[in-house]
Amino acid sequence: MTARYGPVMAVRNVSLKVGVGEIVALLGANGAGKSTTLACVAGLHRSRHGQIRFDGEDVSRLSPERVLRRGISLTPEGRRLFSTLTVRENLLLGGAARGRRSRNDYGELLSLFPILRERLHQPAALLSGGEQQQLAIARSLMSRPRLLLLDEPTLGLAPMLVRQVLDLIRGLRDEQGLSVLMVDQNVHQALDLCDRGYILRTGEIAATGSPEELRRSREVQAAYLGVA
Amino acid sequence: MTQLIQELVNGVSLGSTYALLALGLAMVFSILGLINFAHGELVTIGGYTMWALFNHGFPWPAVLVLTLIATTLAAVAMERIAFRPLRGANISTLLITSFAVSFFIQVALQIFVSAQPQGIGVPNWTDTVWHVGDVSLPAVKVVTLAVTVTAVVLLTVFLRRTILGVAMRAAAEDFDTVRLLGVRANVVVVTAFAVSGLLAGVAALLFFASAPGVDSGVGTPLVINAFIGVILGGLGNLYGAVLGGFVLGLATSLLDANLHGTYTQFSQAFALAIVVGILLVRPQGLVGRAEALT
Prior knowledge:
A: 2 domains; 6-stranded mixed sheet; 10 helices; B: mainly alpha; ABC transporter involved in vitamin B12 uptake, BtuC
């Protein structure tokens, strides 16, 4: 897949794969093309060349609404919650594509996020950073996705909350068989969590492999682990 | 005192029309960033619909329903034909398009319907005046206020209790993210136009019930005042638009009644000077949120 922002080539010939029930990390420095890749998969940005196939179907030309209805949900960077809407309204909107069916199972979803149950009728703006991140993920799950795209899910969170969010992602994979493609600038924690990873550098894939292989790779050691 | 109450009743009635139109303008603006100056033509279309139906002997309830349907369909058609092809265009392009639509409808009405003002044969009850003490309450003005309050309450219920209404409030904050959640953009936008058309229909019914004459340009001053109401209330804030409409209606009405001689003709200008004064103190408007614009 190749994608541009005007004259700027943001992603070039990127080819990656996420298996069922797999957590795949997309790593790289700022401007490496990680978020653009997620935006293309979610239908927010059009790739110029190549295909994005989901369950055998080409979804690269679908609108964000249709991509979501196929089973791909993006939790965007910065959470992008509706700050004036209550927690409950944010959640219901997350399930809007599924119609009335989602109203019945949002109670079930809240068992994964007990803190949100206590805050149901508060505006999202009043939640703490960790609570907001949980709400953003819960909102994405309301559409019952099969592939969850997470853009910087732990950015700006306190270490204890980071652990909570990472445990939550692992739990979703283990208990629900959810596939996850996540972008994270924190290489150590992403490699602790993922099954496989890709390193992006200036829009191209520089390395790929299991967490152990990536930790040993010269690319990661030089750029992230401080090994010359 | 009696005179003041009388003037307040008139002001609230005038403000109701502005408030309903301002609410429609604000609803479309909050989602698309478009101030639709062709919104006034929806009132005009409502007026001509009333004129045609009353002339053909339709009963009042049928006129009410058909006028609302006509303005709602006109608003949806406006979106489908003029604005949807320009989705994503910059605000200036959309603004100029709205002027083009406005001029087009005005000229089309002059050519195909009538170039002359037409009287609307409204029912006799609109002339009824109730007396409470020394205060005279024209029935149509009381109905106008009651209907406006009811419309705002119903709209609030729609925006808070239905998933589509919640999606519209969310779209006013961040349209892209609403789409990301699987809500169809066209559904949200068409609903915004349909609601604005419905509100314009209600405004038309109330406005022409108290001023039963229609011409192709009747909507223009109304939409300008509604726009001022939107700005006064706080661009992007629906309830601010209602408040702004009422404040402008009251200011205009009170000035109309209390200025004498030649000065009466400047009442609108003085009302706008008051609006400017308020905006100098509160640039975000009476209820405005600065972040609503970003």
